[in-house]
Amino acid sequence: MIVRLSDVHGLAKLALAVVLTASSVPQAKAQETSGQSIERRVNELLGQMTLEEKVGQLNLVSHGPPLRWEDISEGKAGALLNFNSAQDVARAQSLARQSRLKIPPLFGLDVLHGFRTQFPLPLGEAAAFSPRVSRLASEWAAKEAAYVGVNWTFAPMADLSRDSRWGRIVEGFGEDPYLGSVLTAARVEGFRQGGLAASTKHFAGYGAPQGGRDYDTTYIPRAEMYDTYLPPFRAAVEAGSASFMAAFNALNGEPSTANPWLLTDVLRRQWGFDGFVTSDWVGIGELINHGIAADGAEAARKAILAGVDMDMMGLLYIKHLPDEVRAGRVPESVIDESVRRVLRTKFRMGLFDRPDIDPSRLDTAFPSPESRQVAREVARETFVLLQNRGDVLPVPASARSIAVVGPLADAPHDQMGPHAARGHKEDSITVLEGIRRRAQGTGITVRNAPACDLFCRDTSGLQAALDAAKQSDVVIAVFGEPQELSGEAASRAHLELNGKQIEVLEELAKTGKPIALVLLGGRPQVLGSVGERIPAILMAWYPGTEAGPAVADVLFGDVSPSGKLPVTWPRATGQLPLYYNRLPTGRPTKPENRFTLQYIDESITPLYPFGWGLSYTQFSYSDAAMTHNQLDQGGVLEVAVSVRNTGAREGQEVVQLYTRDPVASRSLPLRELKAFEKVTLKPGETKRVTLRVPVESLGFHLDDGTYLVEAGTIEAFVGGSSLAEKVGQAEVMKTFRIPPMERRASASTSVAQ
Fold first, then answer.
1. What are phi and psi of 645, to 5 degrees?
2. What CA–CA distance (Å, rounded) separates 741 from 232?
3. Could you please report the per-residue DSSP string of 411-473?
4. pTM of the prediction?
5. CA–CA distance, 10 with 141 (Å, rounded to integer)
6. Under a CB-based contact definition with an 8 Å cutoff, are residues 147 and 102 in contact?
């Protein structure tokens, strides 16, 4: 079948318009009237339902066993996942219309960083420090998925993580709560604009497992939860996330899937969320393994009473809840409220009024030329130039030959990273191919020798790689983590470059040739001697479908790198967890004093700090000024600074504002990111950047969720990384408190002139 590109985009725009209208959370008066209409329709439908039909709406089943297609027509499946073809979606929709009440199902899929066209993994995307980029990538991913009938994504992942051993750090935004809040909100908005309702996950604390071990327990004090781990989730609520997913982990001994403090007290009462919560895969059944339920019936009872509305792949609600209600152990009013949340979401999404998907649609309509171009543009904004001694990059115009070495240079599957939805390796343009295309017509010879196998265990090809390097003017080495070593269930105890990569790179360095290392992977990796031996290192994450053209754009200097690290990069695995916004200690590090904060066998500092990233040009900061030296409640901390491009190339700089409260009633972080702005500067150009932070964002939480801003000094730091220089201070004039159920001032803003 042939699908015209114009048809694809026209249909996508139509679907987008419908979803934008139907899925908006009511705010204005006219929307409140719409909201009242939805509530009336929900209650009318709920009043017609049997107990079994109600529980059916709370059952989320995956494509394939144990799903029975007749479950759909019998009203026993309110939501379906892993339906990723229009044919299957249309079949399920037809069966739903045969059910007694004709309630449309949700069709969920893990659309994290693309559907058919793959964009950079979320951690890499976070390195762009750009909500515009995050919104754009999510919108395109959603448009492709919605085209074949998917209407719900299990994303974004709002889990903050300070420990790179955890494999799922690749799915999030890194270590900072403010950056995470901004990007989580942008992703929710982008998904909605593209046609998908978001299910923000994993609520909550999943990113801080002991030892970095996926699924392990977490211990986080409640005040720390409010300050550090919960802000991105609250941002998702305010951005209109349709649903949330409960986390696998136990939090302070209480599994998230049966945690009323998280799911009811915080999410619903304090934040006012009125959508629904789903479990993760068999998460309710795992309450037995957690040791808080003796059997499936008790697990189902504890989960529903805690606030989990939907059972993903456990089949425990559908099996046990009717009997639990009839036995009086679960009030039917609890079931009603969960069903009400699910139906409310479906009405808001417009599912009752939307026609069934056209079964002739195929995902082969993508990647389109437009989606490829967007993927390329997004990817090159995410690359972080970690070091560039001797200006090895960009590849000099005088170079006549390039040796491309390393197993990941030509790895179309691995460059997509984990959770690639419907991504096909055949769609991928590899780094090797991208370099070859860029070199065409310029008289540059490109030689390729992988040096070792994918996991770099077999180095029988090393000599061929060394020969290629010796015969070339420049060496581009592409190494890092194969896709299998990253993502869910891919926690690592050793973060060194796997296999014999370090040995291979050391041998390449001995050739004396200029070497640029392009790292692919889902987290910082311990570089060891490589950081000293290889002059130029570019972190490219998992760049996605357009990896090759995007990497080539940066390597050849067509675009200057502008990414900044969203995580602190360790020197050794033993430094983890490692993060910039740590608390002060009574014994700050003094190199000459053993009895201060330090290691006896490693530096206390990271290899590269949070917010770090170089460019092919240079930027200077000057004339920083604080507009107000005295701050009242409702006021704004405002810092203006002049940023100048002092180099010979155009470039982008992420201007970052950090604050510190040096004397408070409890220890507070040494620095906290509060605002940032990405600006583009031509050579010699200067822009005045103004960064603003509401005073109501300069405090901290108490254990009950109260937000406290104390009178006293606030220090401000501005620069291109978390090493930013102090530029001044201001005084908060009066202490004030904001109760948990009250919203604080809107997020920080910035202006560039």
1. -85, 105
2. 16
3. -TTGGG-S--TT--GGG---HHHHHHHHHTTTT-EEEEE--S-TTS---TTHHHHHHHHHTSS
4. 0.94
5. 16
6. no
Other C-beta atoms closer than 10 Å to the C-beta of 648 total 10
How confident is the model over 412-442, as pLDDT tens digits?
A: 999 999 999 999 999 999 999 999 999 998 9
Assess contact for 172 and 486: CB atoms under 8 A. Answer: no
Nearest Cα residue to 155 out of 128, 122, 126: 122
Length, in residues, of the chain: 753
∠21-27-28 over CA atoms, to 5°?
90
Query: Could you list the active site residues?
Result: 280
Report how far residue 498's alpha carbon sits from residue 454's, in angstroms, rounded to the nearest whole number: 10
Q: Which residues of the chain have pLDDT under 70?
A: 1-32, 746-748, 750
Least Cα distance to 721 among 282, 384, 379 occurs for 384
CA-nearest of 267, 154, 272, 152 to 204 is 267
In 394-442, alpha helices (H): 431-439
Q: Specify the residue for token string 């979320």.
A: 122
Cα–Cα distance, 318 to 313 (Å, whole number): 10
For 717, the token pair is 């730091």
Burial class (CB in 10 A: 0-12, 13-18, 19+), 253: exposed
Query: Among 3, 1, 7, which residue's Cα sits nearest to residue 365?
Result: 3
Q: Which two three-digit tokens encode residue 606?
A: 């990271």
Residue 634 CA neighbour count, 13 Å, CB half = 0
d(CA 109, CA 84): 7
Distance of CA 446 to the CA centre of its chain: 35
Say which residue the tokens 């491309």 belong to.
404
What are residue 211's phi and psi, to 5 degrees? Answer: 70, 10
